[in-house]
Amino acid sequence: TELAARFAAKGSADQVWVEHAATCVSIARGDPGAARAAAARARQVADSLGDPVLQWIADDTWLYVAALYVSTPELAAEAVALAEDLAARSHPGVSAHMISQAMLIVTCIFLQAGLREQALSSTRQIEALAERTKKPQEQMLALAVAAWIPLAEGRLEEVIVADEHIRAQGEETGLAALALFASSTWCLYAYLYLGRVDPLELPRQLRFW
User: Fold this and answer.
1) Mean pLDDT of all residues in 130-158
2) Which of 18, 43, 58, 132 could form a disulfide with 8 if both were Cys (CB 3.0 to 4.6 A apart)?
3) Whether the predicted pLDDT of 98 surpasses 80
């Protein structure tokens, strides 16, 4: 990311992508402060450019950091407001995969805030998108997002079946890394609650960066 930053003009679309990459690297390094700063810069640049695709990317990146590192009530409220905006926002030119990823994070934010109806609505959006595109990327994300419903209702074995389906589809389609990312949202909680995975082993199992 340091090398890329040298060639990304300040205030350009390239800077948005560099800040997005810097956010991911900072998360992988366990540096929430750097992740928040990079995500905030990405949003600032994307907003100034007015490009809807870049705005989706930057807002999704910022929300992902907010979902991982809940800090102050003010930031939590800002995250909910942005999640509500994304859930209602039109998406001309935005790929189905980007929308699915964004809705996954939106659902996380709603659940963290205890907004079940909004979480259900964003979950249905992802499921409808997966049904429309028939693409494995959207199908895996839709299964993973919807897993919070049986998880919340205590139907843990159902969650594990969904996880196995996601991982199998990932292997079949060459999208194993995406499948691992998808299943890390809620599916792993079922294994934890049933005592089928050691919590200390989770960092090793979730090395998808």
Assistant:
1) 93
2) 18
3) yes
pLDDT, averaged across the chain = 88
Cα separation, 62 vs 90, in Å, equals 19
Query: Which pair of tokens denotes residue 171?
Result: 């292997």
The pLDDT confidence band at residue 184, using thresholds 50, 70 and 90, is: confident
> What DSSP string runs through 6-31?
HHS-TTSHHHHHHHHHHHHHHHHTT-
| Predicted local confidence at residue 1, as pLDDT | 58
Question: What is the spatial distance between Cα 15 and Cα 42, in angstroms, rounded to a whole number?
Answer: 7
Number of helices (H), then strands (E), belonging to the chain: the values are 13, 0
Task: Encode burial over 199-209: b for 16+ CB neighbours within 10 A, e otherwise.
Answer: eeeeeeeeeee
Residue length of the chain:
209
